[in-house]
Amino acid sequence: QVQLVESGGGSVQAGGSLRLSCAASGYTYSRSCMGWLRQVPGKEREGIASIDLDGRTRYDDSVKGRFTISKDNAENTLSLQMNSLKPEDTAMYYCAMGRTWCRYGYPYWGQGTQVTVSS
């Protein structure tokens, strides 16, 4: 059974940094697309960063240049370094895993970790 457990969320002032982590178990982690998504109440969940099987990373324009996604296959850990945080980054952040390439979507999700950025 696949399990994804996020950590590292919290409250920070605008301009600050946070690092989110996701511990994965129960699947061939090294051969799966991994990503981070976020959701604000009343809005749809949006993908903000992903890392594909070939190591290629993709970012939503809203976080490009500020967030960095990375993956440690040896530790089965996915991370999201978030710098220069803005109040509009406030959301619940979710770690997600695919069965293969990112274009096939994410069948597995974590429970989420809250990030709150104050102005």
What value does the Rg take, in angstroms?
Answer: 13 Å
Helix content: under 10%
Shape: globular
Strand content: over 45%
Distance between the termini: 40 Å
Number of strands: 11
What is the string of SSEs from the N terminus onward? EEEEEEEEEEE
**Helix/strand/pairing category:** mainly beta
What's the tally of helices?
0
Q: For the residues shown, what is the average pLDDT?
A: 94
Biggest pleated-sheet summary: 7 strands, mixed
Chain oligomer state: single chain
Poorly predicted parts: none
Q: If you had to describe this structure to a student in words, what would you say it looks like?
A:
The structure is a single chain. The chain is mainly β. It has no helices and 11 strands. It has strands spanning 3-7, 10-13, 18-25, 34-39, 46-51, 57-59, 67-72, 77-82, 91-97, 108-109, 113-118. Strands 2, 4, 5, 6, 9, 10 and 11 form a 7-stranded mixed β-sheet that branches. A 4-stranded antiparallel β-sheet has the order 1-3-8-7, with no helix packed on it. A hairpin with a 6-residue loop joins strand 4 (34-39) and strand 5 (46-51). The protein starts with a strand and ends with a strand.
Keywords:
single chain; globular; 11 strands; mainly beta; 7-stranded mixed sheet; 0% helix; 4-stranded antiparallel sheet
List the helices and strands and how they pair.
Layout: E1 3-7, E2 10-13, E3 18-25, E4 34-39, E5 46-51, E6 57-59, E7 67-72, E8 77-82, E9 91-97, E10 108-109, E11 113-118
Parallel strand pairs: 2-11
Antiparallel strand pairs: 1-3, 3-8, 4-5, 4-9, 5-6, 7-8, 9-10, 9-11
